[in-house]
Every structure is written in structure tokens, then in C-alpha cells.
Amino acid sequence: MWLARARGLLWVLALLVGLVAAPVGAQDDQASSFTPAEEEAIRQLVRDYLLTNPEVLIEAAQAYRDRQQELQQQEARQTLVSRREELDRDPGSPVVGNPDGDVVVVEFFDYRCPYCVRVAEDLREAVEDDGNIRLVMKEFPILGPESVVAARMALAAEKQGKYEQLHFAFMTVSGKLTEDTAYKVAEKIGLDMDQLRRDMEAPEIDATLQRNYDLAQALQINGTPAFVIGDEIVRGAIDMRALRQIVGRTRANSS
After folding, report:
1. 84-254 homologous superfamily
2. The whole model's pTM is what?
3. How do the pLDDT tens digits run along the chain, 255 residues long?
4. Is residue 211 packed enough to be buried (19+ CB in 10 Å), middle (13-18) or exposed (0-12)?
5. By the 8 A CB rule, do 53 and 93 touch?
């Protein structure tokens, strides 16, 4: 009798590690009638089985990771729908390219991220070549205080109509962007530095950055660069051929 129950517990164990599915309540029914001695025997049986077949644990762990990843992707897709306006049309997020473009590409980036720097010029060329992309810039400074200063500076430069110029100037700095270098770059492109410093402290910049952080978290974006193109999220650097393909799919699906 106890062996039959042991097989039942193995089945329950399989449920717990995600190998099979069962109706709600089945686990409670299986576990409710075991005596202490039977439970100990079953624990030993399960232990021996797992020691003999450790691949079961590996399979279970992989199944769990796959399931968690799918749940995260589902949550991100739901966020794309529920927060689309904030993603595409946040007034605090500058726009590069065609402001009336038929495809929106959203980039989350950090000026001190080498992968963001690597794709910046190619991205600008791709947007210019296409002519109908609305590139939404989400300042996402996550690599230290220098990144935050640079992001605030870029958003403040929008008040003087020089966001795009400063953005790509930052992306062409040799080596890691420092606070001192950022100010020198801003001065070099002709920004009014007194106004820039005042505008950097504006509360709306704090609000924009906080919205970007919150949105990135909701979309499961933890690093830079990251792109949202239509209903697709690309985490990490992307080559421009792949970006053009996604833009093409998005355009075709919306027509």
C-alpha cells in the first residue's frame, strides 16, 4: 500500500517541479492520508530516486525557467498594450527622425553604455534612410551618477532645440563619458550653459526619468540598449538589418 502512495508522492513531486499538470486539490488529497512512517519512507524513496536520476532536477529547473520567462513575456506584452501611449507619446521623451512616422521605434539607452554607443550612428543612418520612422528616445541612465548627469543635460538641451545634436555628440565621445567631458561637449555645440544648468534641475526632468525607469521595469528591461518596435521588444544591441526587418514587419502588420 505504501508503495502505491509513494508513487503518488512521486507524481505530486512531478507536479511541484512542473513536469505534469493536475487539477486543483489533487495534491491535498494525495498528501492528507500519509502516516509519519509512510512519509519518512516516501522521503527516502524520493531522495534515492533523485540521487539516481539527477537529470530530473535539471529538467525541472529548465521547465521552471521556461515557464517564468513565458510569464514575464506575457506581462511585457500586456504592458505594451496598457502603456502604449506613455511608451510612444510621452511629452518628456524627445523624438528623432520623422515625428509623424508610420512606425515607432523606442530606444532605452545610457550614454556610458558601449553597446549604445556602438549602434548610435548606424541607428541614425537607418532612421534617415527610411524616412518614416519616429524614433522615441528614452533616457535610461543606469550606469552611475555620470550617466544621470548626461541624461539630465540632454533632456535640458531640448529646451534649446539641441537635444539631437547633443545626444549624438555624447555618443561619439572617445572613451567613457565623464561629467566634465559632458559639460565641455555641451559648451562646444553652442548651448547656453547658464540656461542649461537651470533647466537640468527642472522637476519635469525628474518626472521623465522616473517614468522611464518605471516603464523599463514593467517591460522587463534591465539593461541597455533596448528597443521596442511595434509589438516586439529587443533587449540588447541590434544590427540594422534586423532592425529594418522588424520595422518592415511592423509596417506590414499595421497596413
Report:
1. Glutaredoxin (3.40.30.10)
2. 0.74
3. 444 545 555 555 554 444 444 444 444 454 456 788 877 877 787 777 777 877 877 777 777 676 766 666 677 778 888 999 999 999 999 999 999 999 999 999 999 999 999 999 999 999 999 999 999 999 999 999 999 999 999 999 999 999 999 999 999 998 899 999 999 999 999 999 999 999 999 999 999 999 999 999 999 899 999 999 998 999 999 999 999 999 999 999 887
4. middle
5. no
Cell (9 digits) for 68? 517564468
Alpha-carbon distance of 130 to 125, in angstroms, equals: 8
Query: Residue 81: which residues within 8 A CB-CB, separation 6 or more?
Result: none
Instruction: State the Cα angle at 187 between 186 and 189, rounded to 5°.
Output: 70
Cis upstream peptide for 54 (omega within 30°): no
- Which residues of the chain are in CATH 3.40.30.10 domains? 84-254
Residue 221 CB partners (closer than 8 Å, separation 6+): 108, 140, 233, 235
Helices (H), 92-139: 114-130
